[in-house]
Design goal:
globular, about 400 residues, Rossmann fold, 3 domains, BirA Bifunctional Protein, domain 2, 14 helices, single chain
Length: about 400
């Protein structure tokens, strides 16, 4: 009898389990403060759901022997989008969901076999809103999560932000026959493959410059505009960084723009981001996410409100970085923070933090409100008990 766990799997000791539970509890309390409601999708799904409309390879899914094609979820987003498009299809948007659970990835090992990567994660999904304010909300929530779980200050935290459309803009500069190879080089920062690439030297220099084009958002966006001119994606990023950078800086988090930021799964269409921790060893990705409008559209039976964005935090990785185990309380009051002018969004985010300090759930309108009817509708759709006007 083999008494070892499956290849790649592991047992957690009681102390590790306790720390996981404490971290998950803190995050769940924070999500609820921001107006998110818990959802618990199944661990087992049909393979076509788990493949996320082609975003995840069939080979990365751990299969289950059954009469129909089933597997264990390699991530949770696809399952929640599936539920939002079916069971919760009639619910008013936006949907704010949070979940905590285990995912199972299937990785090929060095010897040609397969390892199971079991991961305990916590995250949120915001479905049904296109506004850039949704992206600002998710990134603000992620930044606030770091304060709640109290990662040790010796770890340097960096928030890397990219956009799949920026990458497509860059790739449009090259011949379509070699675009996929250049994309892999850019996303993997593969300087060796770049040296071997059969292209003109001036093209090689241009690609290398793009690979090195990451850092302070303002500087990177300026360089991109010099090459490609202004467009809506760059304009949206400028607006986003105007609000996100000050909040991140207050928490000691460095923000960088990476136009070639890649992801393992091809789920995202638009904003992507990774939260990276570094100290003395190799950088560790402790959280990642992005916008997945195309996935929602493929799962939905209509073209209405097919928008989604979310992130997941690896509790297993965070566990080794935390410095304390404090918990806090929440109550059942829920406040909608509204404003009439777009310029008041920053004030709204600051006021939201004041409510959170009191343990009160609060959410922010994603659009300026100017009529009583729209205000009443938003109160209803967000299930709030009261409204606070910023201006």
């Amino acid at each position: 009898m083999t008494l070892q766990p499956a290849s790649g799997a592991r047992d957690l000791n009681p102390q590790q389990v306790k720390k996981n539970h404490l971290i998950a509890s803190k995050l769940s309390s924070l999500y609820q403060l921001w107006g998110y409601e818990r959802i618990s999708p199944p661990h087992i799904e049909r393979i076509d759901t788990l493949m996320a409309a082609g975003g995840i390879s069939n080979n990365e899914i751990l299969k289950i022997v059954s009469d129909e094609p089933l597997g264990l979820r390699p991530e949770i987003t696809a399952s929640i989008v599936r539920a939002a498009s079916t069971r919760f299809n009639e619910y008013e948007r936006p949907l704010r969901f949070w979940s905590t659970g285990t995912s199972f990835k299937c990785n090929q090992s060095i010897d040609g076999g397969f390892d199971i990567e079991e991961s305990f994660q916590s995250g949120v999904e915001l479905i049904g809103t296109k506004a850039i304010n949704a992206e600002i909300e998710l990134l603000s929530l992620l930044i606030e999560a770091l304060k709640v779980i109290e990662i040790d200050q010796r770890y340097k935290m960096t928030l890397l932000i990219g956009n799949t459309y920026l990458l497509e803009l860059i790739l449009s500069s090259f011949d379509s026959t070699g675009a996929d190879q250049i994309k892999n080089i850019l996303c993997d920062l593969d300087y060796i493959a770049l040296r071997k690439l059969d292209i003109k030297e001036e093209t090689r220099t241009f690609i290398k410059n793009i690979m090195n084009m990451r850092g302070t958002p303002t500087k990177v966006l300026t360089k991109l505009k010099e090459i490609y001119g202004s467009n809506s994606y760059i304009d949206n990023l400028e607006e986003l960084f105007t609000i996100i950078e000050p909040f991140a800086r207050d928490k000691g988090i460095e923000v960088q723009l990476d136009p070639t930021l890649g992801t393992k799964y091809r789920l995202y269409s638009g904003l992507t981001f990774s939260l990276v921790s570094s100290y003395s060893g190799a950088p560790i990705i402790i959280a990642k996410g992005g916008r997945y409008d195309d996935l929602v559209k493929k799962f939905s039976s209509t073209d209405h409100n097919c928008f989604g964005i979310g992130f997941s935090i690896s509790i297993d990785k965070v566990r080794e970085l935390v410095s304390s185990n404090k918990e806090f309380q929440v109550n059942n009051e829920k406040v909608l923070i509204a404003y009439k002018q777009s310029a008041s969004l920053y004030k709204a985010l600051k006021q939201q933090k004041e409510w959170h300090k009191k343990g009160v759930i609060s959410v922010i309108s994603h659009e300026p409100l100017r009529t009583n009817d729209s205000t009443k509708q938003l109160l209803k759709s967000n299930r709030c008990t009261k409204i606070e006007w910023i201006d």
